[in-house]
Every structure is written in structure tokens, then in C-alpha cells.
Write a structure and sequence with these properties.
The protein has 270 residues and is an alpha/beta fold. The protein has one domain (37-242): P-loop containing nucleotide triphosphate hydrolases (Rossmann fold, 3-Layer(aba) Sandwich). The chain contains 8 helices and 9 strands. Strands 3-2-4-5-1-6-7-8-9 form a 9-stranded mixed beta sheet, sandwiched between helices. Strand 4 (143-149), helix 7 and strand 5 form a beta-alpha-beta unit.
Length: 270
Amino acid sequence: MTGARTNTLASLRGSIERIEAQADASAPARVALGHAEADATLQGGLAPAAVHEVFAEGRQSAAATGFIAGLAGLVSLAGRVTARRPLVWIRQDFAEIESGALSMAGLAELGLDPRCVVTVCAADVDAALRTAADALVCDALGAVVLEVWGEARQFDLVASRKLTLAAQASGVTGLLLRVAAQPQPSTAETRWIVRAAHSPPASVGSAWGAPVFDAQLVRNRHGPVGRWIMEWKCDECLFAKPSAYPQPVAAAPAHRPHQASITGQQRRAG
């Protein structure tokens, strides 16, 4: 009896391994983020046709928005030579009250084409979930962003599974932006916690530097996790490891020793 159970269990395990191998072989190519260490951990990049979660504290909402905008831009452009596929950004109305409206100029500075961004303001969490599920069914889209502020009991395992199945069926990637909320069990492929990182000015005359994120991968269904400082390259539309020296070091003027000598003489004379 024990031998029969062992053989049955081994047979089931073999069947599961074959199914998973076939799924991996037919899965679309991953979307490289550009950050070498993060891509290596993700086995080549972000998995398309799946759901990914980004969490942040309330005061880090701007950083999380910028990070997920970068992910959405990469996914929308993946596999396209001439143009991006449209991006649908669904926001719960409370999210807009807390963090303000999305800036199309800001998205353009991040490298996204505002003409390809469709924003939807949902009255509540239930409406936001329904809208996201409907949008994920449309295979003409590049990505769907669902942004909800605060804890929401509607985001249970059933709702997460529904979004994942819709993404797998259509090939559209779902990106969930959760601000001021605690992660709950879900079917998400990855889960990130994002914070703002130090961004030195791009030049002496510029007060703004490149967007830099402290991105912590806390869930990865098919591999390890990690934490990296990731800089978003707006012109290249990819993430990268920040340069150790983002600005050139100013050279000392050639006449500096002469001035220092005169200054020293003046001080001694005084």
C-alpha cells in the first residue's frame, strides 16, 4: 500500500514538473529592467502577463508612483518597435485626494508618452477593482495600473486571483500600486516596497537630479529576493545602478597655490 502511494505521488510530481516546464517554455520573454542585479534576481526581468505589486508608506507615495510609472513604461514598450501600447491608470478617488492628480508633464519627463495614458478615477475600491479586471481583458493594452490608497478588505486572495487570470489570458501586465497599506496574501508574481533614495543634482545649475529609488523585492514567486538602489534613466527609459560619482569633481585652479601663499603672508603680516 505504501509503495503504491509512493508511486502515485512520484507520478503526480512528474506531471506537475512537465506542466510547469511547458508553461515556462511558452511564457513570453521577460521585460528587462536594465538594472543588472535586479534582472539577474528576476531571471531576466519582469514577467509580463502577470500581476506585480508595489507598496509604499503614505509619505513615499510620490516615489512609488514614479517607480511604477517606470515599470509601466517598460512593459508598454516591450515587444514594440515603433510605438507604445496604451496604458490604463485606474485610481481610487481617495488616492487622488491624498496625493493629487497625475501630472502628464511629469510622466513625459519620466519618458512616458502622455498621449498613450488613459486615466480612470473610480468612486471606490469595488469600482476600481471591476474596472481593472475589465481593462486587463483587453489585449490591445500594454499595461494596467491599479492605484488604491489605504487598507482595503476587497483586496483578498479571490480578487487577486481574478486579476491574475485576466492578465494571463490577455497577455496584459497588471501593476498594483498600494499606498499606506499592508501586504496581504495574493497571487502576485512579485511584490516591491519602494522608498525614495538620495538623488544628487544632475548639474551645478540644476536643482533636480535623476529619480532614484530604494527598491526592495520582498516577494518573487520563482526566485530569491533582494534590495537595490535603482536610478531611472529618463532618456533611455530603463533602470540602472546609480553612478558612484554622478558629477565630475572640480579641479583645483592652477593659480590656487599662489593665492594661498599670498593669503598666508597677509595673515602673518596682520
